[in-house]
Amino acid sequence: MDYNYTLKYRSFDQLLDEVRIDFKNFNLENKIEPAQLIKIAMKVNYDLGLRISQTKQALLNIEHGRAKLPDNFYVMNYAVLCGEYTVSSIVPSGTNIQEVPYVQYQETQPAVDVCGPTTVNCRTCNSLPCCCQTAGCLTTNTADPCPTPVYDPNQPYGNPCIKPRVFLDCKDNAWELIQIVSTETRTYRHFERVRFRNSQFVECDCPNLNQMCANDAYIRDGFVWTSLKTCNMYINYQGAMEDDNGVLLVPDHPMLNEYYEYAIKERLLENLAMEGENVGNQLQLIIQKLRMARNIANGIVNTPNFSEMQKLWALNRKAMYSKYYDMFKSYNGPSNLTRINNAV
Fold first, then answer.
1. Do residues 237 and 75 touch, judged by C-beta distance below 8 A?
2. How many Å apart are CA 19 and CA 17, to the nearest integer?
3. Best label site of 94, 105, 196, 231, fewest CB within 10 Å?
4. Would you give the end-to-end CA distance of the chain in angstroms?
């Protein structure tokens, strides 16, 4: 679950830059190898546990009884099957415009031909050859070479009948313009329970492990397999400590940064000592600092926040009520609660 919803993250390269600032001489001598230190950051992430991971969600389209899990999937929190839904379409009010480098199509020439072929799939195009405005020029002007194209302000992107339509800047760089318009929203109204088999990819307190239902599912080889052939499944999961590009992420917290930095420094000095460098005193100092920073980091991560304390209080109150009050539910009390005063 997303207990640390205010936690920020940074990349491994940013963490390594902090270490390079402290070890200036070793950095100038190129003795800091990122390939030797990235496994230390991964080890610290594993030591701090799932509480530092990012909680993410996804909607899987099950086809032929299976669907591929997201690339950053680590462990599942819970899942439900999505049933009926309503579709609402809106009028496009905004666009998302992207400029991407132009990739040459196979059916076109390497250079954009301003004359273009005579067979173009466009009904409004001129079917006559290049340089011919009328049919009379077929016998007189067919051998003339094509003139140098002149910039036309009415057609800044070239002839719309010639593929591909790209934009050429002053440096002869070609770009395509892609427009993405989202106009459909799906709202799911019906959900079904699904029972998951116990595995290392399912959290130990996942409610789907104890579901009593006909729908069955399990996770194997990066896919989720279900007893249903076609359906939609919503999953809530803990994502791996990496961004969309696969770059390793570490928490960015004042009380956790020292643990990561001292762990990397300890391995760095250990490698230098194995190579014959005289860093024994520095290594002993870093080991003491690392032990203190690890205790502080684990204490911060494992400290419950307010919502967890509130859930614990409610659970304890319910348990005490069941222990001391539920036993008196079957006792109705005296039938006559009217006080009788016998004094005269």
1. yes
2. 5
3. 94
4. 70
- Helices (H) then strands (E): counts for the chain: 6, 15
Q: How many residues does the chain have?
A: 344
Burial degree of 342 (CB within 10 A; 0-12, 13-18, 19+): exposed
212: tokens are: 């009593």
- What amino acid is encoded at 252 in this protein? D
Residues 250 and 7 sit within 8 Å (Cβ to Cβ) = no
Mean pLDDT of 211-236: 91
Residues with Cβ < 8 Å from 341, sequence gap 6 or more?
none
Question: Residues 59-69: what's their mean pLDDT?
Answer: 92
Q: Please say whether the beta carbons of 11 and 248 come within 8 A.
A: yes
- Residues with Cβ < 8 Å from 127, sequence gap 6 or more? 118
Residue type present at position 276: G
Give the pLDDT score at 284.
92
- Residue 92 tokens read as 């496009």
Q: Helix, strand, coil proportions of the chain in percent (round to 5)?
A: 30, 25, 45
Q: Residue 240: which H helix or E strand, with range? A: none
Please give the mean pLDDT across all residues of the chain: 77
Rounded-to-integer distance, Cα 39 and Cα 107, Å: 47
